[in-house]
Amino acid sequence: MTDTLIRSGTVADAQALAGFAARVFVEAFGADTRPDDLQRHLASAYGPVQQAAELADPDVTTLLATHGGQLVAYAQLRRNAQPPPCVVNAAAVQLQRFYLDPALHGNGLATRLMHRSRLVARELGGRHLWLTCWERNARALAFYRKAGFVEAGVTHFVVGADRQIDRVLAIALDAE
Fold first, then answer.
1. What whole-number distance in Å separates Cα of residue 167 and Cα of residue 136?
2. How many domains does the chain have?
3. Range of the domain at 15
4. What pLDDT sits at residue 95?
5. Which residue positions in the chain have pLDDT lower than 70?
6. Is 14 exposed, middle or buried (0-12, 13-18, 19+ CB in 10 A)?
7. Closest among 7, 21, 8 to 49, alpha carbons compared
8. What is the rounded distance in angstroms from the CA atom of residue 135 to the CA atom of residue 47?
9. C-alpha to C-alpha distance for 124 and 80, rounded to whole angstroms
10. Domain at 156, CATH number
């Protein structure tokens, strides 16, 4: 998808991002999450107000990938995030979210978006990039490992009232 544009999001993108982010989260985790927990998480994380606040936050950079004017993927990086204790690297930037429309898996867009995410992490002053990934998301874990991330430990992620185990992965950015 070489004609897909990757750009930084702005507050004007909040409504579109909220809808897309909620949809891809449900597609990724909805079948394995109780409906009430899923709805609580969506309400707290993916509404237009929350997205506008994140898009306006100077410590957050949100990359949007569009194809034909439609949002098809996004990545969100956070500087100054409090990492779990297993992330001991100095100057670590968090890759807080990384989602593609499932119809586009396997076409190279994820690799392009990851490369751009690494560049942005360095622009944010990062020397390392870390992320968390649900332990049952084998496809994502395989992608991150293929991208060079190594496991640093585990942490928990709460969806509604459901406390899940996430793998923590990290990569040095100096090898870019």
1. 9
2. 1
3. 5-172
4. 98
5. 1-2, 175-176
6. buried
7. 21
8. 26
9. 10
10. 3.40.630.30
